[in-house]
Amino acid sequence: MAVDWATHLPTMYNFWDNVVFHTNQYSGNPMQVHKEIHGLHNFTPTDFKQWYQLFSQTVDELFAGENSELIKQRALSISTMMQIKIASGQSLLK
Ligand code: HEM
């Protein structure tokens, strides 16, 4: 699967902006998107560990403070929920 970064990056900016600053500019369904990706190529627990390691390392390299801690916490909890949903194949949240 090829990622179109020119489209994907602005989507990610909106997603994380909304998580931290409640800007309301993101209107997708990440859980559904990742379930579909999982159908093409299985995510493993190691993938999620590596994802979080890179995410938190990058946040720590670039930022410090309350919002840095908040975004890392949210990343971990969304990632955990994503893994549970993918593993169970259930729709717990939209
Ligand atoms: C193993 C870890 C992960 C991998 C490999 C992964 C990979 C991907 C891929 C391939 C896409 C689609 C890009 C495209 O549209 O071309 C995507 C979209 C996205 N991912 Fe992930 N992802 C991971 C974990 C996460 C986590 C933990 C979060 C949130 C905390 C997240 C948030 C998003 C969002 C918001 C989108 C955009 C969905 C949309 O189109 O609305 N991802 N990801």
Could you provide a short overview of the structure?
With 94 residues, this protein is mainly α.
Structure, described:
The protein has 94 residues and is mainly alpha-helical. It has one domain. It has helices spanning 5-21, 30-40, 45-62, 66-88. Helix 3 (45-62) packs antiparallel against helix 4 (66-88). The chain is globular.
Secondary structure: number of strands: 0
Strand content: under 5%
Radius of gyration: 14 Å
Write the element-wise H/E pattern from the N-terminal end onward: HHHH
Cofactors and ligands present? protoporphyrin IX containing FE
> Spans of 5+ residues with little confidence (pLDDT < 50)?
none
Mean of all residue-level pLDDT scores: 93
Distance between the termini: 24 Å
How many domains, as an integer?
1
How would you sum up the global shape? globular
Largest sheet: none
Q: Please, how many helices?
A: 4
Structural class: mainly alpha
Helical content band:
over 70%
